[in-house]
Write a structure and sequence with these properties.
Layout lengths: L13 E6 L4 E7 L10 E9 L10 H13 L19 E4 L4 E11 L2 E10 L5 H9 L10
Antiparallel strand pairs: 1-2, 1-3, 3-4, 5-6
Length: about 150
């Protein structure tokens, strides 16, 4: 199976160079060599989103996506609807890992039960529901019907 590790950028990956001092992406580029960032500047891999403008860069995620596209018999033209262009999907990239900062939590116990309070800052494009799903996930999700 392909290397799907989202904690580092491999050769051929599209990546975002993020500056946590300003809380935003400062550069998007194609990795021509193995990268290693130093806080507060880090690089994270970007996952390709399929669409009519998608072009494979040959990275590890592109190879996996191209295999699925081939198996499903999908064409990039399928994502452009000439009759209704507003339904067309151009494609793009999405951050692989979910980034958060200042994560802290507390438990407040009361007469009617306990309340867990979580406080964090999520990077743009991340969803708190996904974070909460991971926080609440049991040790055996399948057996728990999760």
């Amino acid at each position: 199976m392909e290397n799907l590790d989202l904690s580092s950028v491999d050769v051929g990956d599209m990546y975002a160079h993020i500056d946590f001092r300003v809380g935003r992406t400062v550069k998007i580029d194609l990795a021509k060599s193995k990268l290693k960032g130093q806080p507060p500047l880090i690089q994270i891999p970007l996952l390709p989103l399929i669409g009519y403008a998608y072009r494979s860069q040959g990275g590890r995620f592109d190879k996996l996506l191209n295999r699925v596209i081939g198996e499903e018999g999908v064409s990039m033209r399928d994502f452009y609807v000439k009759e209704m262009p507003e339904l067309s999907i151009e494609g793009g990239f999405r951050s692989g890992p979910m980034l958060s900062g200042g994560f802290n939590w507390s438990i407040q116990r009361g007469e009617e039960g306990s309340v867990v309070k979580i406080n964090t800052l999520l990077y743009r494009g991340s969803y708190v529901t996904i974070l909460l799903r991971e926080v609440m996930k049991p040790s055996d999700p399948v057996a728990s019907g999760f």
